[in-house]
Amino acid sequence: MKTILVATDKPFAKVAIDQIEAIVKEAGFKLELLEKYTSKDELLKAVEKVNAIIVRSDIISKEIVEAAKELQIVVRAGAGYDNLDLEACSANNVVAMNTPGQNANAVAELALGMMVMAARNMFNGAAGTELMGKKLGIHAYGNVGKYVAKIAKGFGMEVYAFDPFVSEEKIKADGIIPVANVDELYKTCQYVSLHIPATETTKKSINYNLLSKMPKGATLVNTARKEVINEEEVLKLMEERVDFKYVSDISPDAKDQFLKFDSRVFFTPKKLGAQTAEANVNAGVAAARQIIDFLKNGNETFRLNK
Ligand code: 3PG
């Protein structure tokens, strides 16, 4: 009997686990659970005999892949797959997939929630501002970016987007204003919401030069990855510009230095964007279904590695 392991440092909601379990059982497979593990050794041991793994931001390194001798497929229940060593997966004949779009609305709602929070000075009681009529720049118009744009329009924001991989026509068709380059997006928008993945090109790309172009009363919203931020340079900018705010769902490495900016910064205690019952069900169930369809029928839709 094939075994599917759900290995999540940050557990799914119970309702999601129940649904995953029912689907796995119905397919005739066995489900194992490793939640809130505290060491890599626990993960190394848990993967030894399983045929498939579902993870979230859990690190699936070369070491883990090599320890999983029976592994055929690993699915990142979520969008960003910078936690998977795709090369190691390919070298060990392991298919790697993600579940794009499944948690997008949850992340988008948090992005807007943090925008409201920033506009109201992190709820410190001082008079804030409103989102209506303000310009919002969506940096990367993928699944999450699209939801952020849609919700922001409901707030009456003027929404702009930049994405080198999405055509101007597609952006325009959603009633969003496309801009020609990244500099223009930051120059135009008082709010910028980040939706870029962490890659060799994007790491530390959100820097002083780019952010200093933002108009007065600027707010940077990060529900993407901390790696894309050049923390040292953002700190320098925040020293210089008392109007600049930074809200993030991913705590920076230099969190203590940021916290001195008081009601100009906010960080969630743990990455919470996708942490809703709905997103857990969507992404977890999609991951389980993709695994079953691969193991039974060889379906490789959503495969990430070659
Ligand atoms: C994603 O890439 O899907 C999001 O960042 C959510 O990550 P999480 O599953 O670790 O909460």
Secondary-structure blueprint of this entry?
Blueprint: E1 3-8, H1 14-26, E2 30-35, H2 40-47, E3 52-55, H3 62-67, E4 73-76, H4 86-91, E5 95-98, H5 104-119, E6 135-139, H6 143-154, E7 158-162, H7 168-173, E8 177-178, H8 182-188, E9 191-194, H9 208-211, E10 219-222, H10 231-240, E11 245-248, H11 255-259, E12 265-267, H12 277-297
Helix pairs in contact: 1-12, 5-6
Bound molecules: 3-phosphoglyceric acid (3PG).
3-phosphoglyceric acid binds near residues 56, 78, 273 and 275.
Description:
With 306 residues, the protein is of the alpha/beta class. Helices cover 37% and strands 17% of the residues. It has twelve helices and twelve strands. β7 (158-162), α7 and β8 form a beta-alpha-beta unit. α1 (14-26) runs parallel beside α12 and α5 crosses α6 (143-154). It is elongated and about 60 Å long. 3-phosphoglyceric acid is lined by residues 10, 56-57, 78-80, 103, 271, 273-275.
The proportion of strand residues reads 15-25%
**Helix-residue proportion:** 25-40%
Provide the CATH architecture of the largest domain.
3-Layer(aba) Sandwich
**What's the main sheet like?**
7 strands, parallel
The value of Rg in angstroms is 20 Å
Number of DSSP-assigned strands: 12
How are strands sequenced across the largest beta sheet? Answer: 8-7-6-9-10-11-12
Number of domains: 2
Q: Helical region count?
A: 12
The ligands found in this model are: 3-phosphoglyceric acid
Name the CATH homologous superfamily of the largest domain. Answer: NAD(P)-binding Rossmann-like Domain
Shape: elongated
Span between termini: 27 Å
Q: Examine the coordinates and then state which fold CATH places here, giving the name of the CATH topology of the largest domain.
A: Rossmann fold
| CATH class descriptor name of the largest domain | Alpha Beta
List low-pLDDT spans.
none
The SSE string, one letter per element, is EHEHEHEHEHEHEHEHEHEHEHEH
* Computed structural class: alpha/beta
Q: Can you give the mean pLDDT?
A: 98
